[in-house]
Amino acid sequence: MTLDYEFLSPQRIVFGWGRRRELGDIAKTLGQRAFVVLGSRTLERNGSWAELRQRLSDGGITTELLPILSREPTIADVDSVTSYLRSQRAGPGDFLLAIGGGASIDLAKAAAALMTNIHGHSIRDFLEGVGRSLQVTIPPLPMLAMPTTGGTGTEATKNAVISVDRPPVKKSIRSPMMVPRVVLVDPELAVSVSPETTAWTGMDAITQLIESYISKNAKPIPQALAIHGLTLALPWIRTAVRDGASRLAREAMAHAALLSGMALANSGLGFAHGVAAALGVFADVPHGLACAMMLPVALRVNRAIAEKPLAELARAALPPALRSDTEAADALIREIHSLCHDLNVPTRLQQVGVRPEQLGDLVAGSRGNSMNGNPCQLNDAELHTILEAML
Ligand SMILES: [Zn+2]
Question: What does the pLDDT average to over 87-104?
Fold first, then answer.
């Protein structure tokens, strides 16, 4: 790797247990009116939203709650939020606040971009390979992201993933200007996240850390972050799933997820994310679960070509000193297998509803930015054989 890179990250990251209490002070640096995207009704039911609204009000900020979305945003979702924002004359002095998982943050990122880039009428115009291929040329409305599920890392990335129905695909609107301005991570907010969601989002973070590290487009700063993230996530994910109230485990997983987002935003991903996108579209498999299922396969596929970087990760993240690259890479692969076993990750595609006749769609749907970054280049026939063996 030659030293020649760029590095993109949020302007300000505030991380810490209980630091949501500073939301009012932090948010008022962005504006006086917040349009809020909540990622789940749980945040309303368990009182989290009422508390946060009070913090905003203490900071002199008025709030407008947008419709709650607990699935990945569609073109219609983004367009309807944007037209509502326009009806409210959202502009200077306003900002978007997304609280929740990746879906709510993506919805806010896309709407914030569409609000200022009025040369497009619909989010469809900006989605890669779908519409008119318009570019984001004007800085979006400012945005504050508060991730609560300890997973996707989308709070630190420059794209938003939007579901397209015809043809059924997930596509991104992407621009360096779309990285949220401020990120506030309070790991205490994840205490109410279910064990299942904790497991899948945690596996998503681990997959992002590994895939970005071994990517063809890996870069030095994100690699340093990925190593740090993996040294936290591997030892703590089981505890976070078993004991959701564990402060140390929640902190470790929230931090690992944030680092994974910064790593993937700069280095890209690989095989597991390529196939996970297709599994989401064609079989509605939750993103983190799809990543967890595909990570062991991704490691096997890339084992030969990426032995050295896998060994580097193993030496950093696993306890005993490992001598050769081969021993170290093997140890990491064993650890991921045992993790998938302990977290009951399905190994067969039919267990998550994939039908044999969907293999062709899955192969075609796996092609994209992520797969392009995979160290080992696979043709369609090879990919088909790998997925067929997982049926
Ligand atoms: Zn992911």
Answer: 95
Question: Measured in angstroms, how far is the CA atom of residue 201 from the centroid of ligand 1?
Answer: 8
How many whole angstroms from 59 Cα to the centroid of ligand 1? 34
Question: Which pair of tokens denotes residue 209?
Answer: 């850390």
CA 46 to chain centre: 24
Would you state the pLDDT for residue 42? 85
| Centroid of ligand 1 to alpha carbon of 288 (angstroms) | 6
Judged against a pLDDT cut of 60, whether residue 21 lies above it is answered with yes
User: Mean pLDDT throughout 314-328?
Assistant: 87
At 151, the pLDDT band (50, 70, 90 cuts) reads low
Mean of pLDDT values over 238-259:
97
Span from the CA of 222 to the centroid of ligand 1 (angstroms)? 15
Full-model pTM: 0.93
Tokens of 227: 């190593």
Residue-wise DSSP of 321-345? ---SHHHHHHHHHHHHHHHHHHTT-
C-alpha 86 – ligand 1 centre gap (Å): 31
CB contact at 8 A, 211 and 298? yes
Tell me the average pLDDT of the chain.
Answer: 94
Give the Cα-Cα-Cα angle 49, 203, 67 (nearest 5 degrees).
30
What token pair was written down for 324? 């050769």
Taking the centre of ligand 1 as the mean of its atom positions, its distance from the CA of residue 155, in whole angstroms, is: 12
Compute, in angstroms, the gap from residue 104 CA to the centroid of ligand 1. Answer: 15
Q: How far is the CA of 294 from the centre of ligand 1 (A)?
A: 11
pLDDT digits (tens, 9 = 90+) for 51-86: 999 999 999 999 999 988 778 899 999 999 999 999
CA of 289 to the centre of ligand 1 (A): 10
Domains of the chain by start residue, with CATH? 12-189 (3.40.50.1970), 194-389 (1.20.1090.10)
Distance 92 CA to ligand 1 centre (A): 33
Instruction: Determine the distance separating the centroid of ligand 1 and the alpha carbon of 264, expressed in angstroms.
Output: 9
What DSSP assignment string belongs to 253-314?
A: HHHHHHHHHHHHHHH---HHHHHHHHHHHHH---HHHHHHHHHHHHHHHHTTTTHHHHHHHH
For residue 354, the model assigns a pLDDT of: 95
